[in-house]
Amino acid sequence: MAKLVKVTDTQSLPPGSAAAFDVEGNRIALFNVGGTIYAIEDTCTHAGASLAEGTVEGTKVTCPWHGAEFDLTNGSALTPPAFEGVKTFKVVVEGRDIKVEV
Q: For tag attachment on the chain, is the N or C end more exposed, with fewer CB atoms within 10 Å?
C-alpha cells in the first residue's frame, strides 16, 4: 500500500531548483518549477545519469549526459537516445513539508 513520506521542505527546494533523494529504496528527483513540485525517478533510462543534474525548461528535463528529454508531468521520454520513460511519484505539500507517495 502506498504511503506518503516526507522528503524535504520548501525552503530547501526553492523555485528553479532540483535535488535527488533516496526514499524507501527509490532514487527520486524533485523539481520545483515555478512553485509546482514534480517527482520522477532520478535515473535516466538511457545510460543512468542523474536527472536532477539536468537542465529544466518548463516541464521538461534534459539529461546531462546525452541530451535525452523527459516530461516531468508524466515521466515519458520525449527524445532519443532514451526510449523508455521514468516513473513519476505523487507529490503532496503540507505546510513546508514536501512529501512523496511511495
A: N
Instruction: Flag whether the pTM goes above 0.70.
Output: yes
DSSP string, 30-78: EEEETTEEEEEESB-TTT--BGGGSEEETTEEE-TTT--EEETTT--B-
Instruction: Encode pLDDT of 63-74 as tens digits.
Output: 999 999 999 999
Cα distances (Å, whole numbers) of residue 97 to 3, 5, 7, 15, 82: 15, 10, 8, 15, 32
Nearest residue to 89 via CA among 34, 44, 28: 28
Note whether 100 and 19 are within 8 A (CB): no
